[in-house]
Write a structure and sequence with these properties.
Blueprint: H1 8-21, H2 23-29, H3 34-55, H4 61-72, H5 80-92, H6 96-111, H7 118-140, H8 147-164, H9 166-171, H10 179-185, H11 194-213, H12 222-241, H13 255-266
Helix pairs in contact: 1-2, 1-3, 2-12, 3-5, 3-6, 3-7, 4-5, 4-6, 6-7, 7-8, 8-11, 8-12, 11-12, 12-13
Length: 271
């Protein structure tokens, strides 16, 4: 049985999750029309729930991933995430192949295999985040095929997350950078990663350029996506200002600067 078309308790949970966990994204979501915003919150809840189950190595993770994959292949929705997607699909025609690829990315995380090359890192970033961009573009609507720039923007944001969270990931025994790049450009210790970060920031910036170029092709939400891209990209600038990892810790963009960027970028394009 599908969820009611407007399950207010569920939407409330989705809003709260976005505001608690995806604070930068939540700021951008304020620029969306309310009905569309609620659908985006629900979509975020699905992605975030699966990601958290994988990150915490929950025993439920494999079955919940399978339930989404099965729905994508035509089965009756058998989990909350699958039911949310099925209900959204009635209104937004979600790209199921992108959702299957997202699930493959979740399986990559569960497997914990090291990332050997930049090509492998690009594939990983596409699966766990580029796919999110593709699905988001489908929800917002596009004037022409926009999978490539939508995927590029998601991949840019994932690469930004990786660079921001290097020390946190290391503390948890995880490395999301390509082994061959680490060998070529040096280690991850604070004060020794400038060459590495310069290289990785340039790669992320190129993806942002490609992704932002596709924003005018969105039917709805251009202001919101421009604001999200600008705020996320500012994390790279913060890493640069802080000396390319001279000290350990996460680069944090002050909320006041985020709001200023959101106002500038969000007002720079027609909604």
């Amino acid at each position: 049985m599908l969820l009611p078309r407007r399950d207010h308790a569920l939407i409330g949970e989705a809003r709260a999750t976005t505001r608690r966990v995806g604070r930068t994204f939540a700021i951008a979501c304020r620029l969306l029309p309310r009905p569309l915003r609620d659908d985006v919150y629900l979509l975020y809840l699905v992605f975030r729930t699966l990601d958290d189950l994988v990150d915490t190595r929950s025993s439920q993770a494999p079955a919940r991933i399978v339930a989404v994959e099965d729905w994508c292949r035509g089965a009756t929705p058998a989990s909350r995430e699958a039911r949310i997607l099925a209900e959204l699909h009635e209104r937004r025609d979600l790209p199921r192949e992108a959702l299957i690829e997202f699930c493959r990315g979740m399986r990559d995380d569960l497997g914990g295999s090291p990332i050997e090359s930049e090509d492998e890192l690009d594939r990983y970033c596409y699966r766990v985040a580029g796919t999110v961009g593709v699905v988001m573009a489908a929800v917002l609507g596009t004037r022409r095929p926009a999978d490539r720039p939508a995927a590029a923007l998601g991949m840019a944001m994932q690469r930004t997350n990786i660079l921001r969270d290097i020390d946190e990931d290391l503390a948890n025994g995880r490395v999301y950078l390509a082994r061959t790049t680490l060998v070529r450009l040096g280690g991850l210790a604070p004060g020794e990663r400038e060459a590495l970060l310069r290289d990785q920031i340039a790669r992320a910036d190129a993806l942002y350029d490609e992704g932002v170029a596709g924003i005018p092709d969105l039917v709805h939400g251009r202001r919101a996506i421009a604001a999200a891209a600008g705020m996320y990209r500012e994390i790279l600038r913060q890493i640069e200002r802080e000396g390319y990892g001279r000290r350990a810790g996460r680069a944090v963009v002050p909320r006041r600067r985020k709001l200023l960027i959101a106002a500038r970028r969000g007002g720079a394009t027609t909604p």
